[in-house]
Write a structure and sequence with these properties.
The structure is a single chain. The chain has 263 residues and is of the alpha+beta class. It folds into two domains: 53 residues, no CATH class; 164 residues, Nucleotidyltransferase, domain 5 (2-Layer Sandwich), CATH 3.30.420. β4 and β5 form a beta hairpin. The longest helix is centred in the middle third of the chain and has 35 residues. The chain is flat.
Length: 263
């Protein structure tokens, strides 16, 4: 079987896992133990920190005003997928034609998944290259998926993948992730005067507080996420919200993948 090595690694191989995708591609994932030291954490300062809020129209809204648009990969391919599924349904079950169309549909889903993964890799890399501390909200993504009107859009966005990447990349680079509670009023509180608007609805993308401050809902939320995260540090005198690997580890394990191509 021919193989394309994704990367070279040194160290003692502890485990190797072989998997196969629905499109017939093979992957082997090596768990390797190395003697590399885990980087020491960067100092936490507001000047080198950013608060982020995730959304559907715009994937990530940063407290410094930077925004990352949502390419909506699944939504754009939805009509094509629907058409391909109709063509597949017309083929006899168990036939060679049915198997061929099963592979075509799987390839389209894999293409969408790869685009989403590539997008989140680029966004997480950019944020962690620019900032030493990322402030995020502890979202209940699984619970939010229960909303039948938003579940497809949330799944298309892939927020869970983004938070996973942020955490392990922050550990690799010695960066910090500060997490605030999901019930903090980040989007309903005015970031200028602190007034809370409990009547704010999901459809309200802009709102004006009782003191006359007009706010963009998502940008306001990202500013509040950063403010609340640093308030907790000040109030507790510690860093209870940091979600990353500790500094004391001496031996690190890295998951590295080599892509195998079926002969």
């Amino acid at each position: 079987m021919k193989a394309v090595l994704h990367r070279r690694f040194e160290g003692q191989i502890r485990q190797a896992t072989v998997s196969k995708t629905a499109t017939g591609k093979f992957y082997i994932s090596f768990l390797v133990e190395t003697s590399e030291l885990v980087p020491a954490k960067k100092p936490i300062s507001e000047s080198q920190a950013v608060g982020i809020d995730v959304g559907i129209k715009e994937l990530v809204i940063c407290s410094d005003g930077e925004r990352f648009e949502n390419p909506k990969n699944y939504r754009k391919a939805e009509k094509k997928l629907s058409r391909m599924n109709r063509w597949r349904s017309r083929k006899k079950k168990g036939s060679a034609n049915r198997k061929k169309w099963n592979k075509k549909v799987a390839a389209q889903h894999e293409k969408i998944s790869n685009k989403r993964k590539d997008m989140w890799h680029k966004i997480s890399h950019e944020l962690l290259s620019e900032y030493d501390t990322i402030c995020v909200e502890d979202l209940n993504v699984k619970g939010m998926m229960q909303n039948r009107k938003l579940s497809k859009s949330i799944a298309d966005a892939g927020w869970g993948m983004f938070f996973t990447m942020l955490n392990y990349k922050a550990a690799w680079r010695g960066k910090n992730i500060l997490t605030i509670g999901r019930f903090e009023p980040s989007s309903k509180m005015c970031s200028i005067c602190g007034v809370t608007n409990n009547s704010l609805m999901l459809k309200d993308r802009e709102w004006t507080c009782e003191n006359g401050h007009t706010l963009d809902r998502d940008l306001n939320a990202s500013v509040n996420v950063k403010r609340i995260a640093f308030q907790k540090i000040t109030n507790t005198g510690g860093l209870p919200g940091i979600n990353a690997c500790g500094d004391e580890a001496i031996v690190s394990s890295a998951k590295q993948e080599a892509h195998g191509l079926q002969a």
